[in-house]
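Dear H.,

Thanks for agreeing to be a second pair of eyes. The structure we're designing against is below in token form, covering all 384 positions.
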């Protein structure tokens, strides 16, 4: 891959390259829509991701080219003209602008050729991957004194302030900090984290792409955040808490009537129960109790479907088809929802049969063709 992309770099920019980098995509195993509620999430990095071939320039020009958007050609900016244009360049430019605003000394321009093999809009964090990748490149090119967790935080800020999506920190954290064969238990309140070995033995993680793009995701995402913030404010009238993630199920049940609206009550309920589920799930996994882990994945989906209402026909059809299959230990939607991907744990010996049967059932129900990827758990941002 690297050699092929270097050859493309030379062809496109007519120059020699300087360095090459990679950041993965991520899949979240459990703990959905809890990061911005101060709870725990459990994602892992993938071996698919985003590649960059980079050359430092003498002047202040920034020239960007993506193999995924070839028809757009080379897009040119300068260090003092970084503009949001509602296209893919918003992610690297937003990152660069955030670094500059933070006072990092970036005094020369660069040429970058990007290539991503994460399906776009599938909820596997192609955007976070591109942001963190750019941050990592900046650190490397300009020898910046910044560690990965800081890069992760600035990447989230770039997405919030420049791109305009009010996301939590999970995706950027997973993409930056991922480790081979490990998932990350991340407390989004404190940013304390722990790597947990994924001992799946004769099982694999299977991602199913509904191929329904998450069209609604950004606006509905921000709406869910607002609903949770309002529910928190209602609870704070009596409770001394800073986030929903601080509440146990018992505390929530005792106080839920402070939330004056039934819909908001369900949103908060999801956040609290999902956070508790994540802790329990990781405990099960550490004790090799895969079956119990799977049951919690299923419960997570039901809660996202009924209480948080971020699933919809495509994700539900895929997950429900998976649940019917022999060898599926657990299945749920992953990421923001409203389309995108599901994640499941499946027994290896049934995997071909599962893909065939679920593929057929899904197409019958939705008229779309699903896609399936057996996941390998890969490393975070790195030079290649
Ligand atoms: C998106 C956001 C994350 C997280 C998930 C839902 O992927 O970028 O911050 O909120 O949705 O868990």
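And this is the sequence the design step returned. I haven't edited it by hand at all.
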């Amino acid at each position: 891959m690297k050699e092929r992309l270097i050859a493309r770099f030379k062809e496109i920019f007519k120059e020699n390259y300087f360095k090459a980098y990679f950041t993965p995509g991520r899949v979240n195993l459990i703990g959905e829509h809890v990061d911005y509620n101060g709870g725990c999430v459990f994602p892992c990095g993938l071996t698919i991701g985003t590649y960059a071939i980079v050359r430092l320039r003498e002047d202040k020009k920034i020239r960007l080219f993506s193999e995924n958007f070839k028809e757009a050609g080379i897009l040119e900016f300068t260090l003092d003209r970084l503009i949001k244009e509602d296209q893919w360049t918003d992610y690297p430019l937003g990152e660069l602008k955030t670094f500059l605003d933070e006072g990092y000394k970036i005094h020369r321009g660069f040429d970058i050729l990007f290539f991503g093999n994460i399906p776009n809009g599938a909820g596997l964090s192609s955007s976070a991957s591109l942001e963190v990748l750019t941050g990592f490149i900046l650190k490397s090119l300009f020898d910046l004194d910044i560690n990965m967790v800081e890069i992760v935080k600035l990447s989230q800020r770039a997405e919030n302030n420049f791109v305009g999506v009010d996301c939590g920190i999970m995706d950027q954290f997973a993409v930056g900090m991922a480790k081979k064969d490990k998932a990350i238990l991340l407390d989004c309140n404190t940013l304390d984290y722990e790597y947990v070995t994924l001992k799946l033995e004769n099982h694999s993680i299977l991602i199913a792409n509904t191929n329904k793009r998450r069209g609604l995701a950004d606006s509905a995402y921000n709406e869910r955040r607002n609903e949770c913030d309002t529910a928190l404010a209602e609870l704070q009238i009596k409770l001394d808490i800073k986030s929903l993630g601080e509440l146990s199920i018992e505390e929530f049940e005792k106080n839920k009537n402070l939330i004056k609206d039934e819909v908001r009550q369900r949103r908060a309920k999801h956040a609290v129960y999902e956070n508790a589920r994540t802790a329990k799930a990781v405990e099960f996994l550490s004790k090799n109790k895969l079956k119990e882990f799977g049951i919690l994945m299923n419960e997570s989906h039901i809660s996202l479907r009924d209480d948080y209402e971020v699933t919809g026909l495509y994700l539900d059809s895929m997950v429900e088809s998976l649940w019917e299959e022999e060898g599926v230990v657990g299945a749920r939607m992953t990421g923001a929802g409203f389309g995108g991907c599901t994640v499941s744990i499946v027994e290896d010996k049934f995997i071909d049969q599962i893909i065939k049967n679920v593929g057929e059932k899904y197409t019958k129900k939705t008229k779309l063709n699903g896609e399936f990827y057996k996941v390998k758990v890969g490393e975070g941002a790195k030079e290649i």
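Two observations from my side: Residues 2-196 form a domain with the Ribosomal Protein S5; domain 2 fold (CATH 3.30.230.10). Residues 28, 32-33, 35-36, 167-168, 170-171, 335-336 surround alpha-D-galactopyranose (CB under 6 Å).

Warmly,
E.
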